[in-house]
Amino acid sequence: MKKIFVLLFISLYFASCSDDDNNSGLSPASTTLSFSHNWNGTPVSNADFNTIQFTNENGEMLSIERLRYLISDITFTTTSNEVLNLNNYNLIDLTNGTNLDFSLGTQIPPGSYSNVSFTFGFDNEDNSQNYLDLNSASFNVPDMLGGGYHYMQFDGKYIDNTNMEANFNYHAIRAVDNPGMNPTFPQDTFFTVNLGAVTVSGDTTLNIEMNIAEWFTNPNTWDLNQLNTVLMPNSAAQIQMYQNGQSVFTLGSVSQ
Predict the structure, then answer these.
(1) Cα-flanking dihedrals φ and ψ of residue 154, to 5°?
(2) What is the count of structural domains for the chain?
(3) Which domain holds residue 163?
(4) The whole model's pTM is what?
(5) Separation CA 223–CA 59 (nearest Å)
(6) Residues 139, 70: contact at Cβ < 8 Å?
(7) CA dihedral 194, 195, 199, 203 (to 10 degrees)
(8) 131 phi and psi angles, rounded to 5 deg
(9) Is residue 22 domain-resident?
(10) C-alpha dihedral, 194 to 99 to 10 to 128, nearest 10°
């Protein structure tokens, strides 16, 4: 149904353009979301993995060993509040350097957009579906925790308060209580990332930056000695991840 809406939106958009419209004569644009990663401004790639070299807000030194996360439902909102919602998703895997560039696959009408956004993870409707590629990637959440899919898997090691290396598994999912046959969900923990206004005049790349350090910073200063592993059944920890995630993504440059 969403795909039909996308095609209808594009058809109506061009049908409504007058001859003297600034967009008349412009071809639909191919748009790509390109994801980069940093630690408080220092670029991070998989070449930086498996070495304890990052310091979080709480003062703990840590390494990154795996980082992959899901985005979905990319949305373009026009200045007249028409919404173009793309029913797609992408599993970004920094560990293997895959899917860092995500072509939307739909031709975006040229023009000024008041906001471009995406969902971190899946909303509840999308999370209830079955995705063969995510199954193959072992991105599933166990049924006893509500099923569906991870929003993020972020793993590494840190120096604990006994000066020893210890593991952390910062895994984001839908917050769940009462794991087992009848889990309950205290609140949604997927969230919308608003990138702001963008003008599309031709083929466009939106460069989106993830500051990995922000997962440990704001508004909750993360203490890895307290919250390190077995976080998936911990709904309070999941809600703190949701809160910290609000400041993780920003729109960098726009290339056309």
Answers:
(1) -130, 110
(2) 1
(3) 2-16+32-255
(4) 0.90
(5) 9
(6) yes
(7) -110
(8) -125, 110
(9) no
(10) -70
Residue 162 contacts by C-beta under 8 Å, 6 or more apart in sequence?
none
Residue 188 CA, distance from chain mean position: 15
Q: Does a structural domain hold residue 76?
A: yes
Of the candidates 249, 190, 187, 241, the residue with the CA atom closest to the CA atom of residue 217: 241
Instruction: Count how many residues are written for the chain.
Output: 256
Residue with tokens 């200063």: 221
pLDDT in the model for residue 252: 96
25: in domain: no
Torsion of CA 215, 220, 226, 232, to 10 degrees: -60
Tokens of 76: 């373009």
Residue 107 binned pLDDT confidence (cut-offs 50, 70, 90): confident
- Residue 7 banded pLDDT, cuts 50, 70, 90: very low
Burial of 173 (0-12, 13-18, 19+ CB in 10 A): buried
Span 66-90, average pLDDT:
96
Amino acid identity at 214: E
- Phi-psi category of 227—alpha, beta or left, where left has phi over 0 and alpha has psi -120 to 50? beta
Query: Looking at residue 22, what is its pLDDT?
Result: 43
